[in-house]
Design a protein that fits this description.
Helices cover about 45% and strands about 0% of the residues. The protein is mostly helical. It is globular, with a radius of gyration of 22 Å. This is Cytochrome-c oxidase, cbb3-type subunit II. InterPro entries: Cyt_c-like_dom, Cyt_c-like_dom_sf, Cyt_c_oxidase_monohaem-su/FixO.
């Protein structure tokens, strides 16, 4: 076997053919499943897109490297399902660009953290994790509460996401800045527009506990509170299996 390998390396044409064959096999393995993607990705009629504020929070989550310590994919293993909730479905990441499944858990998986804790808990945890979890190794993100959130370019973010398949409408893109402000200020005139465009179940709240000013803390808490709640497909699938 080793002698064959050595002879192949000395034969330019043979080595080229072998590389093409190996590459072809690898490409086939990766490409073939795409022909059946409509059968493998679950249907979720209730699936909604991220709001502009949630997109801003997701961008901050990526910027701060949170994905390096927290995965967003619950495997089908029994211990994971019992700890974190129903295992993740492909459709739940339908509008994620890029995917944030992760590969390491210094902290727990957060695929279903949305609604598990209050906004106040999330703010306190991000401000100083050890106030709530003494053994936590997570760094404090106090500046999120001080930093004003940039929202004037969120329409461009939504337009870019539409180019890769996320179904944002012209109205959503045009009102992105107003919707970001309205979602974090329930008493403002812009709040009603958020639920009109993204649905009645959209979480409109004082995420950082303060009105008027819009902070990066508002955005990341809004994002964390929607994780696992863009669709009820996983919950329905789990209930169907029990029944």
């Amino acid at each position: 076997m080793f002698n064959f390998h050595y002879r192949l390396e000395r034969n330019a044409i043979g080595l080229t053919v072998a590389i093409i064959i190996a590459g072809g096999i690898g490409g086939l393995v990766e490409i073939a499943p795409l022909f059946t993607i409509d059968e493998t990705v679950e249907d979720a009629p209730d699936m909604r897109v991220y709001t502009p504020l949630e997109i801003a929070g997701r961008n901050i989550y990526i910027r701060e490297g949170c994905y390096a310590c927290h995965s967003q994919m619950i495997r089908t293993l029994r211990d994971e399902v019992e700890r974190y909730g129903p295992y993740s479905l492909a459709v739940e990441s339908k509008y994620d660009h890029p995917m944030l499944w992760g590969s390491k858990r210094t902290g727990p998986d957060i695929a279903r953290i949305g609604g598990k804790y209050s906004n106040e808990w999330q703010v306190a945890h991000l401000y100083n994790p050890r106030d709530l979890v003494p053994e936590s190794k997570m760094p404090a993100y106090r500046w999120l509460l001080r930093n004003s959130l940039k929202i004037d370019d969120l329409g461009e973010h939504l337009a870019a996401l539409r180019k890769v398949g996320v179904p944002y409408t012209d109205e959503m893109i045009a009102n992105a800045t107003a919707d970001a402000y309205g979602q974090a200020n329930p008493d403002s005139g812009q709040a009603a527009g958020v639920t009109e465009r993204y649905g009645d179940k959209t979480n409109v709240s004082l995420f950082d506990g303060r009105g008027e000013t819009l902070t990066e803390m508002d955005a990341i808490v809004a994002y964390l509170q929607i994780l696992g709640r863009l669709t009820d497909a996983a919950k329905q699938s789990a209930q169907a299996k029990v029944e």
